Amino acid sequence: MFKKVTTKDELSDAFSIRREVFVHEQGVPIENELDSYEEVATHIVGYAENGEPFAVARFRTYEDVAKVERVAIKSSYRQGGNGRQLMQFVEEVAQKEGYSTLVLNAQCQAEHFYRSLGYEAEGEVFLEENIEHIRMTKHI
């Protein structure tokens, strides 16, 4: 079940997943993981049937579009369409909030996944936290 974060406990769940995936798995410094956009972003968390939080994403206004960021799924949940379901939920919530275009900086290893969801790559590959990324856009 995916839901828009509305409580501090849910936000804590979101941060916990991000720490596990970005800090522990990918080596992003903890001080770079949380930023000044946490308060203004719309956060999404996915919960398994047993109540365990397993997926997270956020989006925020960037120019006149929704910028999707911090998309992460715990390693044991990376099969079975969970990423696709998470992104579909993000798109639904963003559309309800009035957005018609989403942008994201995809890790290059996930570019094919985002392409399969209708995102299109733009520009050149760049480094963010020493990980190769590419900007991608989708009109919803």
> What percent strand?
35-45%
Assembly form of the protein: single chain
Overall 3D shape: globular
**SSE string, helices as H and strands as E:** EHHEEEHEHEE
- Rg, nearest Å: 14 Å
CATH architecture: 3-Layer(aba) Sandwich
Tally of extended strands? 7
Question: How many H/I helical runs?
Answer: 4
Q: In the residues, how many domains can be counted?
A: 1
Main beta-sheet annotation: 7 strands, mixed
Uncertain runs: none
Average pLDDT, all residues: 95
Domain N-acetyltransferase: 1-140
Keywords: Acyltransferase, Transferase
Family: Belongs to the UPF0039 (ElaA) family.
Protein name: GCN5-related N-acetyltransferase
Features:
38% strand, alpha+beta, 140 residues, 4 helices, Aminopeptidase
Structure description:
With about 140 residues, the chain is α+β, with helices and mostly antiparallel strands. The chain has 4 helices and 7 strands; from the N terminus they run βααβββαβαββ. The protein has a single domain (about 1-140), classed as Aminopeptidase (3-Layer(aba) Sandwich), CATH 3.40.630. Strands 1-2-3-4-5-7-6 form a 7-stranded mixed beta sheet, with helices on both faces. The mean pLDDT is about 95.
Summarize this, please?
The chain is α+β, with helices and mostly antiparallel strands.
Topology:
Elements: E1 2-4, H1 8-25, H2 30-33, E2 42-47, E3 53-62, E4 65-73, H3 82-96, E5 101-107, H4 111-116, E6 120-128, E7 131-139
Parallel strand pairs: 4-5
Antiparallel strand pairs: 1-2, 2-3, 3-4, 5-7, 6-7
